Amino acid sequence: MFVNVCAKETPFLQGKLTVFQPEKGFRFGIDSVLLANFVELRKGEVALEVGACHGIVSFILALRYPFAKIFALEKEKLYVECLKKGVDVNAFQDKIFIISADFNYPCFKPNSLDVILANPPYFEVGRGRSSPDKLKELAKKDKSLSIRGLIQGARALLKTKGRLYLIFTAYRTAELINLLYQHRLTPKVIRFI
Length: 193
Fold this sequence. Notes:
This protein has helices at 30-38, 56-64, 77-89, 134-140, 147-157, 173-182; strands spanning 8-12, 17-21, 47-50, 70-74, 96-100, 113-118, 158-166. The protein is α/β, with parallel strands linked by helices. Strands 5-4-3-6-7 form a five-stranded parallel beta sheet. It has a two-stranded antiparallel ribbon with strand order 1-2.
């Protein structure tokens, strides 16, 4: 029997960062790096990464913005373990604060965040190929958090003039923009890749 542990130590950005990933299962990809490079943080702002997984997006932001204050929200225990190891090894204890919780049950007050960022699952349940690996399946399919749920939650938690940063699949662009407008969030910048 294979027990998945957070043992794969991955140096990144020429060794400036170390990320811990499970031996098997979901690994970070270029979409996480692109999201991190799209996000802008200003001094004094509080950011929340929804579904932080291994922490790569939060880690890149903490490296780019020395003043960063980022809450990394993750509900899967294995990824929380990976996050904790990464925060410790990269010495981000004063920048990244891990929250082991589900975004569907908010642990922040309404209108309390300046920035929310996420790399949500691209596929609806029943679409795309299925994976026998539970964590890979959760990362790819919106079973536990739909794009609608993410946008509703973000709308409630963001301050006036707060910003939501997402990376999302192009084939659902119309749906995404429609949902943003339905929840009174106006897309200001869209970067197609």
